[in-house]
């Protein structure tokens, strides 16, 4: 049986599906992952077939918000829609759709009759428990949380409207708006599996049937892989360091962020590793090392703390390693995950990206490294994450869908 996973966005929006796909392949399925060309090596290294999607967010990694974020999202979705059908044309018996690809995938599934399943990395369904994750706002009360959650979905449908209409014309099926398709899926209790931990987001009791939180899907990495020699040497040369990185965020802001990071580390008396990322962080010195991409699962357990942008994947990776964090959320769902980490006691209060200074970062680092309560909270969460089996529960759902 051929399973196609369709995912689009930044590295953090794609990498978890390499681990999920590898688990499905080990179970005997033929698995392809459709995503941007940038991530072809990740897909092939996991032993999966790569299919190309046209939209690449690597070129959109600057810090944006508000209307600029909506414009960027609309341009990304329009580009994605233009080539989505091509990626699906090579055939599949089951399609797994991410948060970003589902509003297009629904139309293809309807036109072809191929069954589909949602595999989301963020809690998108409206609930009274919290406001929509993309707003970055604090709880507004149960009624207002649900209302703003529905409004957020309406705004997302508007972003997809043009791309969905073009896709339906290409598929030669009758017109149906993005919001109409969403209502159809909800009435049918279309199944969505959420790939994050209940330690961070317990399943809301007011969610409809068919929505389940299964635990994380971890990015694939080769068990034989080791950290680069210079990283090993640095780790062994002194006390546990702090890693500072912003993933795919903050392109073009590297010089300012690097200066802040180094000053904060030295003010707090800590050794540090700067992960270059899209920002291009870089610094030299006996107490600072600059690195590129390395597997979180190898590096994070050997750290004193992680300073990160609170993307869903990095948030989970730090918890899995039982390492406390200082979060500097930039946009989209990052403030949500940052507050969740702080509520667990595994991170300090978030420092908004535009408020970051070396003084604030040094104070937060001093707090998170010296106060053992943060490490204890991260350790408790790590035990919780270890008890979950996101890939295993997804495999079970796939078998129920395909055998039933």
DSSP, total strands: 12
What is the CA–CA distance across the termini?
A: 14 Å
Order of helices and strands: EHEHEHEHEHHEEHEHEEHEHEHHHH
CATH homology superfamily of the largest domain? Glycogen Phosphorylase B
Mean pLDDT rating: 91
Proportion of beta-strand residues: 5-15%
Secondary-structure-derived class: alpha/beta
Strand order of the largest sheet: 3-2-1-4-5-6-7
Total separate domains: 2
How does CATH name the architecture of the largest domain? 3-Layer(aba) Sandwich
Main β-sheet description: 7 strands, parallel
What does the radius of gyration come to? 21 Å
Instruction: Name the shape in a single word.
Output: globular
Tell me the helix content: 40-55%
CATH class of the largest domain: Alpha Beta
* Stretches with pLDDT under 50, minimum 5 residues: 59-65
Briefly note the CATH topology name of the largest domain.
Answer: Rossmann fold
If helices are DSSP runs of H or I spanning 4 or more residues, what is the number of helices?
14
Domain Glycosyltransferase family 28 N-terminal: 3-62
Protein name: Nucleotide disphospho-sugar-binding domain-containing protein
Pfam family, one: Glyco_transf_28
Keywords: Transferase
What are the key terms here?
404 residues, EryCIII-like_C, Glycosyltransferase_28, five-stranded parallel beta sheet, seven-stranded parallel beta sheet, Rossmann fold, alpha/beta, 2 domains, GlycoTrans_28_N, 12 strands, transferase, Nucleotide disphospho-sugar-binding domain-containing protein
């Amino acid at each position: 049986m051929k399973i196609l996973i369709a995912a689009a966005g930044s590295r953090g929006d794609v990498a978890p599906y390499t681990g999920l796909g590898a688990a499905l392949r080990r179970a005997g399925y033929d698995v392809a992952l459709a995503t941007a060309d940038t991530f072809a090596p990740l897909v092939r290294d996991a032993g999966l077939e790569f299919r190309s999607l046209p939209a690449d967010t690597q070129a959109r990694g600057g810090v944006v918000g508000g209307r600029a974020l909506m414009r960027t999202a609309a341009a990304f979705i329009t580009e994605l829609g233009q080539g989505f059908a091509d990626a699906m044309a090579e055939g599949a018996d089951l399609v797994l759709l991410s948060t970003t690809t589902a509003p297009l995938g629904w139309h293809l599934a309807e036109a072809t009759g191929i069954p589909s399943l949602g595999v989301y990395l963020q809690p998108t369904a409206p609930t009274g428990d919290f406001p929509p994750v993309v707003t970055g706002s604090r709880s507004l009360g149960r009624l207002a949380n649900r209302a703003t959650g529905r409004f957020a979905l309406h705004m997302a449908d508007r972003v997809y409207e043009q791309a969905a209409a073009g896709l339906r014309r290409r598929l030669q099926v009758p017109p149906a708006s993005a919001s109409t398709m969403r209502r159809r899926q909800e009435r049918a209790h279309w199944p969505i599996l959420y790939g994050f931990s209940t330690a961070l987001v317990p399943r809301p009791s007011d969610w409809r049937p068919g929505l389940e939180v299964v635990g994380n899907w971890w990015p694939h990495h080769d068990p034989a892989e080791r950290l680069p020699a210079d990283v090993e040497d640095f780790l062994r040369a002194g006390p546990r360091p702090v890693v500072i990185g912003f993933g795919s965020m903050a392109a073009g802001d590297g010089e300012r962020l690097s200066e802040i990071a180094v000053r904060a580390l030295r003010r707090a008396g800590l050794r540090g590793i700067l992960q270059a990322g899209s920002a291009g962080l870089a610094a030299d010195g006996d107490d600072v090392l600059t690195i590129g991409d390395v597997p979180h699962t190898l590096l994070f357990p050997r750290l004193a703390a992680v300073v990160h942008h609170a993307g869903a994947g990095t948030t989970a990776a730090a918890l899995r390693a039982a390492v406390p964090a200082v979060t500097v959320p930039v946009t989209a769902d990052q403030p949500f995950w940052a507050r969740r980490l702080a509520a667990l006691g595994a991170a300090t209060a978030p420092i908004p990206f535009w408020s970051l200074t070396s003084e604030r970062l040094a104070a937060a680092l001093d707090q998170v490294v010296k106060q053992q309560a943060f490490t204890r909270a991260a350790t408790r969460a790590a035990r919780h994450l270890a008890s979950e089996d996101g890939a295993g529960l997804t495999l079970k759902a796939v078998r129920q869908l395909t055998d039933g």
